[in-house]
Every structure is written in C-alpha cells, then in structure tokens.
Amino acid sequence: MKKGLLLVFASLLFVTVSCKKELNTPAKYGEMTFKEREFKFGLIKKGSTVEHVFKFKNTGDTDLVIKDAKGSCGCTIPEYPKKPVKPGDSSEIKVSFNSKGKRGKQKKVVTIFANTEKGAEKIMIRAIIDMDEQEQANHEEAKKVFKNLK
119 — phi, psi (to 5°)? Predict the structure, then answer.
C-alpha cells in the first residue's frame, strides 16, 4: 500500500514539474510595427471616397497572421493581407473612407485582429468633410441671423 501511494505521489510530482517547464516557455507572437498609426486626410469633398495605405513590418518572433480587420463604421473599409507575413517582412493595409452622408470632423478607427501579444491593434484616419454649396449658403445665412440677435 505504501509503495502504491509513493508511486502515485512520485507520478504527480513528475507531471507537476514537467508542466511547470512548459508554462515558463515564452510565447511567440507576430508584432506589427507601423510607419504610422494615424493618418490625417485634412479637408475632403463631401461624398468623396479617399484611401490611405498603412505600411507595417512584422518585427515579431513568428509569422504574423491577420484574422480580421474591421472599421468603426460601414464607411471605413480595410483591406489586409490574407497570407501570413514572415518575421522581418513588410506588408500593408489599405483603408478606404466614404464620406457620403458625413459632415464636419471625422475620426475612424480600424481594429486589426492578429496573433500579436495584445490580440488586436488599432490604426486611425481623420478627415474634415467640406460643406457643399447649399450647406455653405445655410451656414452664411445662420451667421447673419445670429449676428442680428446680438
């Protein structure tokens, strides 16, 4: 009986020690190092679609695999590489922004889901949508009305 308990105890000790070694093995991740994480289009014409290409390098220890990328609204569409990016290699993500129905200052975020340490990376675009002729006329009229109220 004592030999049986000793054998069980020794087995458990062996399993615990061998599992602990596996837990201490550092995980390998892809790492996205961007040349820029934010791009400002500046003033753009209402209803136009603009694009920007974000370039990045995999500075991680293993292949970078992008599982998905999503814009913060339907007006922002990212295109990302579907094949793994090897350590040391570069690639890009193209972001298209459609300003139809938008006005004023815009800030859109693209979230990239990948095998990085954080699991998700973010890039951002900004734009200011110019007023069309009717909006400009309405704006000038409103300024006159408010000036007369003073």
Answer: 90, -20
CA 95 to chain centre: 11
Residues forming beta bridges with residue 95, ordered by sequence position: 52, 78
Interatomic CA distance for residues 53 and 132, integer angstroms = 27
In the chain, domain spans: 32-132
Print pLDDT tens along the chain (150 aa).
Answer: 555 555 555 555 555 555 544 556 678 999 999 999 999 999 999 999 999 999 999 999 999 999 999 999 999 999 999 999 999 999 999 999 999 999 999 999 999 999 999 999 999 999 999 977 667 666 677 667 667 776
CA-nearest of 62, 84, 58, 73 to 111 is 73
- Say if CB 30 and CB 54 are below 8 A apart: no
Report the CATH superfamily, name and number, of domain 32-132: Immunoglobulins (2.60.40.10)
Within 10 angstroms of residue 45's Cβ, the number of other Cβ atoms is 11
State the burial class of residue 14 (Cβ atoms within 10 Å of its Cβ: 0-12, 13-18, 19+).
exposed
pTM for the model stands at 0.74
